[in-house]
Design a protein that fits this description.
With about 300 residues, this protein is an all-alpha fold. It contains 17 helices and no strands.
Length: about 300
Amino acid sequence: MEQLLSLAFDNLSSYDGPKIRKGLRQVEGLLANICLSRGQGSRDRRASSMVKDQEMDEHEPLPPKSLDEITDDPAFYEFFKLQEGFEWNVAMRLVSTLDRLLARGADGSNDLLILSALDLVQGVMLLHPPSKTLFSRELYMNLLLDLLEPDFCPAIQSATIVTLVTALIDTPRNTRTFENLDGLLTITSLFRNRCTSREVKLKLIEFLYFYLMPETPSIPSARAAQDPQLPGLLQRSPSKLVKAFSFGISKGADNGRPRSAGEGETRTQEEKQALLGRHLSSVQELVEDLRQNTPFGGVVG
């Protein structure tokens, strides 16, 4: 896996568009290999080799693996371990690539590369939640906020909002960085901008609903598995998720290992409502709507 990552990182570090695209596809292939079932896919590929004329019509997308399959997959364990170190961390390389793409300005081909990179950043953060800690740093959070500028196309703005939610969920430290950088001003200014598309405005409303939800840190560190009072994420499916986040524990496991992405100061819904109220007058209506319609599984009390 190190060799595959090395090849992808070499391409991602390039300033040449086709090489960057190749690197993004290599990362996508690696993540797909971890997340998608391959058994049926192998049979499909053998069948399609005999009926090439029907390949495009009959070939179906590979089904995603279940949580049990992912946590039992040696490839997932190897990937997760590699992400714990700086050298092989995919999120870091993707964010650096985004930074270079941002400097190139807006054009059709560059926009497609940015969209692909954002999708992969989301995927890596979901597969390796501790990588979210990158966005506790102002440099990387600013990068996402820059992508919300009106200069970028609606597709990039929408993808950035989803990436931002992925980076903030269950990570109060990142949310505090977002707030300190006037992220709420960026969000509300884009919402009020007459040139902002309807699709983006709907995403922004969804983001505000998400922001106003109670904060519940739940991304466990490796040592969290030794704690009988596991955070919410593990409580939802302890037998499946403890394995995914608890390997590599030893007496010296705390030395040199990154801290949990979920550690950090939390704010109450009322405190966040007051912060958002500095930029938006209808915050109370949003809160009431959250309580009455119970979106996101009714977690807002």
